[in-house]
Amino acid sequence: MAEFAVVEPGSVDEVLDLLARHGEEAKPVAGGTWLALVLRQGLLWSSLLVSLRRVPGLAGIAVDEAGNLRLGAMVRLRSVETSALVWERLPVVAETYREVANVRVRYQATVGGNLCDADYASDPPALLAALGARVVAVSQRGRREIPVRDFVVGHYQTVLEPDELVTEVVVPALPPGAGAVYLKYRTRSHEDRPCLGVAAVVVPDGSGRLARAEVVVGAVAERPQRLAEVLDAVVGRALDDATIGEIAERYAAEIEPLSDLRGSAWYRTEMIRVFVERALRAARARAQREGRRT
Amino acid sequence: MIISQEFTLNAPRVRVWDFFLDVPRSSACMAGVEDVTQVDEKTYRGRIQVKIGPLRAGFSVTVELSEVQPPERLVLLVQGDDRATGSLVRAVVSALLQPQGGRTLVSYQMDLSIRGALGRFGGTVIQDVARKMTAQFVECVERSLAAPARVDGRQDG
Question: Are A164 and A184 within one domain?
């Protein structure tokens, strides 16, 4: 393994200063579950690892005045999974983080790190994209919010600039009466990464029709797959089995999946059809329960 | 892992063949390839940098032209190693050139094995990288072939 220095700055400003001065040579380290792996294998080179472990203010879970759930970049996946606040406000978020890897990894890996390593075979990005979540990135040049949907651009590649640090993820509240679900499909062991994962959100308009549907399929291509045209086309339609079947059919037909040890491209296409349908039905059932409650 | 792809080039077969066998020119179309030198009649050496997001590996590569049947079939044996990641790569690439009117259909099959750190990433990412590199290669070859051919008195076709 190549030589590198490790620094542990005590504030976000110090981190931003280091990133601005060292550019691509510096890499922020959150939980380090992915970074340690690729550093040890010699696949990633960095002369300066900037540990975020002593930086205050990055590990909070809160709900802001607008009702958004705000997850700090250094929040451990396990903390999301066990947060009473998350279970109360957006249970689907806790459910999804609970599905990642195993409990040892979840105690170490972080919300921000998971998004930034941009591995295609991951669970949270698809859900966060379906919920319309935004990544908050800061640098000495300013602050910007990037929709999770646009965050990953390729294998292990995000839109972040080398001087930017992710500080939190903002997840908007679901509209009243909406149902949301994440279905993870594993083909090997229980701790495995997904063969595919489907996040589905349905928002009924009060008369049994769709005000909006969101479907994002993860782990089947280099970035989460969302078919805007399909989702726009079903607005105003009845939320019945025919509509659900049509969305599933089009997702299966239009996504070009990759092949890996967890499933061939052909197999993934078949499973996209099955799991998009199941996810939408489950989301509809949740929306119906919500509708009865309100 | 076997990767098969085909692409059509907008040039007659003989020109495509000559271009492929002009290793300094054709290798210049491969993203990340550098320091190409000829060792003997059939063997070339070079380096290739593979970049996947922030991840990098750099292989020292030997390419042997193990079967040359002009202007139709070409088989390459590629072997390389990357000291930094302790990865080894070995590939047998066979390419078939078929005339299609004035164009050329190139089908290639690559039997690729990668051992070491890069290999642990599995086939997925590697295949995607191969696909992207092929796309760039095709685009570059198209551009190079569209440029005026060297005048060597031979007729294409």
Answer: no
